Amino acid sequence: IKADPRFVLNLPAFLEHEGALDLEGLAEAARLGLRFLDAWTGGKAAKLRLGFADLAGLLAALGLAYGSVEARDVGAAIAALARGAAEAESGRIAE
């Protein structure tokens, strides 16, 4: 069984020095990751997947308990941002 191509974003890499999350950089990385996967597969993959690494490390750096409501909200927001950026890029590629 061959797995779908995947690009993984290391979430703590988007933490800025003052403790904020670089949302613009994260969205750009998601777009670039999708472009890379599309080019790598020659545009022939049925699915392209973006993944995340070290959500726990990011949440700890933000001072959030892993199981807290705030942590879940951050995780959901990151997933929504990345998905939106990737889907928008997918539309641009399709044009």
Mind sketching the topology for me?
Elements: E1 6-10, H1 23-40, E2 49-53, H2 55-61, H3 69-94
Helix pairs in contact: 1-3
Q: Provide the low-confidence segments as ranges.
A: none
Could you give the order of strands across the largest sheet?
A: 1-2
Overall pLDDT metric: 92
Number of strands: 2
Q: What oligomerization state is this entry in? A: single chain
Number of helices, where a helix is a run of at least 4 consecutive DSSP H or I residues: 3
Order of helices and strands: EHEHH
Biggest β-sheet: count, sense, barrel?
2 strands, parallel
Query: What structural category do the secondary elements indicate?
Result: mainly alpha
Radius of gyration: 14 Å
Tell me, what's the shape? Answer: elongated
N- to C-terminal distance: 31 Å
- What portion of the residues fall into strands of 2 or more residues? 5-15%
* Helix content bin: 40-55%
Note down, in words, how this protein is organized.
The protein is mainly alpha-helical and 95 residues long. The protein has a two-stranded parallel sheet. Helix 1 packs across helix 3. It has helices at residues 23-40, 55-61, 69-94; strands at 6-10, 49-53. The longest helix has 26 residues, at 69-94.
Comma- or semicolon-separated keywords:
95 residues, two-stranded parallel sheet, mainly alpha, 3 helices, elongated
Short description:
The chain is mainly α. It has helices spanning 23-40, 55-61, 69-94, and strands at 6-10, 49-53. The mean pLDDT is 92.
